[in-house]
Amino acid sequence: xxxxxxxxxxxxxxxxxxxxxxxxxxxxxAALSAHENGARVxxxxxxxYDDRGGNSHYTGGAFRFAYSGVEDLRQIxxxxxxxxxxxxxxxxxxxxxxxxxxxxxxxxxxxxxCELLVRSxxxxxxxxxxxxxxxxxxxxxxAYKVDGKFKFWGGxxxxxxxxxxxxxxxxxxxxxxHGIPIVYSTPATDLIRSGNRVVGVRTLSEGRDIEIEAAAxxxxxxxxxxxxxxxxxxxxxGWDVAKVRGTRYNMGQGLQMALRAGAQPYGNWSGCHSxxxxxxxxxxxxxxxxxxxxxxxxxxxxxxxxxxxxxxxEGANFHSHTYAKYGGEILKQPGMFAWQVFDAKxxxxxxxxxxxxxxxxxxxxxxxxxxxxxxGVDPAAFLQxxxxxNAACQTDIPFNPNIxxxxxxxxxxxxxxxxxNPLDTAPFHAYHVTTGIxxxxxxxxxxxxxxxxxxxxQVVPGLYAAGEMVGGxxxxxxxxxxGLMSGATFGRFAGAHAATFAGAAVN
Length: 507
Ligand SMILES: Cc1cc2nc3c(=O)[nH]c(=O)nc-3n(C[C@H](O)[C@H](O)[C@H](O)COP(=O)(O)OP(=O)(O)OC[C@H]3O[C@@H](n4cnc5c(N)ncnc54)[C@H](O)[C@@H]3O)c2cc1C
Known about the structure:
CATH architecture of the largest domain: 3-Layer(bba) Sandwich
Bound molecules: flavin-adenine dinucleotide
Strand content: 15-25%
CATH topology of the largest domain: FAD/NAD(P)-binding domain
Largest sheet: 8 strands, mixed
Oligomer: single chain
CATH class of the largest domain: Alpha Beta
Number of helices: 14
CATH superfamily of the largest domain: FAD/NAD(P)-binding domain
Structural class: alpha/beta
Shape: globular
Distance between the termini: 41 Å
Radius of gyration: 23 Å
Number of strands: 21
């Protein structure tokens, strides 16, 4: 990507209704919404132009929203009758979405925020599409072809076309078309206050401190996932050395400046989203690979640790219900790694991420031959685990990847609840994974308009938060596709309210 060099100083020395801090999905949605509601907006992005877009840029584009049937989906993306012939989208009701959020967070999600997220999700999806973002059916990712027909499971009917890269391209294009100034390599370093009100933001631009006056500031600058010191402090020992799946710019600076201004910390500060991630992936995300270092198809195989033991129920649920917490389980294993092992019966079900060139994979024709290839694993113990596992599979129950099929193991220390196939068909293949952190769950308390709430439950006038910075939604676990939806939802609310607040402040 190329950017024309511009002189930032006149942009930074102007006055704004709303300054948006961050350059990812939540920030761009906030900026577009504030502009739509009449505000004069500035966007500050810490990253340089080529790295703009935060974690949102790295996403595969899963986008969770409630819908009652295919006609709802057609309001978001055009689909012909022929395209729909062999696809059963079913529905994903608001109640199902709420149930997923409550169940996955062990009933800790903030009921008001969660309800707002869920009940406005369809409208938000339509609004995002109106900003120029294109969506398409997630065939092969959230629906498998069984008896000639794709059947969707677990929500997530539509994905963003081209993933995060296209999402960001569309949002940035629309912002630029509206003339919203965006400055790169310009991190916000602190909030400017007058009494309890936030009246602007301090930035660092080309080595100079600059103060920007604004009636409202929207913080949409991510969590602390990129900051090893904060990871160790809040998530615990070991997390400092986890690989980071996405941006290197989410250093927790937005959270720190908000806490200094008296914001209320909220949610699961010792929790995060993390996944199985290629053991040889670089320390931070690589935009040429995006999310493809992830390895999400473990429900169709087994996972073993250095002791050759299985350590979780791989088939407890669809991957979208377990992947975000199973990353953290790898961190607890000796050497902080695991191997995912499959046989040829399920190869066709594995997603594209298992076939990239930069994958740490071994293959063999027999279990005895693959055992010594699993670096770091006790081979004899591994073979014993597989033999016990194979013997425990209830193969009289039919295998079906589109439903929780109940084809479980019986009598193991850790049983596999669904999709339990004996590993008996060559070639066998295995993938070496470690923990990749996606984003942190701890954030700030916000109102239903995304206004930041202070330690004593009062609104901080002029301060808003969106995206990963909103606390209280996710605890321990997460439903895939909710991060982008949360960013769009609370970004949109923050932008609209901040624009009105700024108007009120001017009059
Ligand atoms: C590999 C990967 C795959 C994912 N896949 C999906 C998916 O398919 N679906 C889904 O819903 N979610 C997915 N997620 C999660 C999703 O990316 C996040 O939940 C969401 O994008 C967060 O949006 P955000 O705008 O809050 O943060 P980000 O997109 O991370 O944006 C934060 C922005 O703030 C900027 N910034 C940081 N500090 C400062 C500062 N001091 N001043 C100015 N700017 C600052 C950063 O540079 C960045 O631009 C994925 C994440 C990763 C890493």
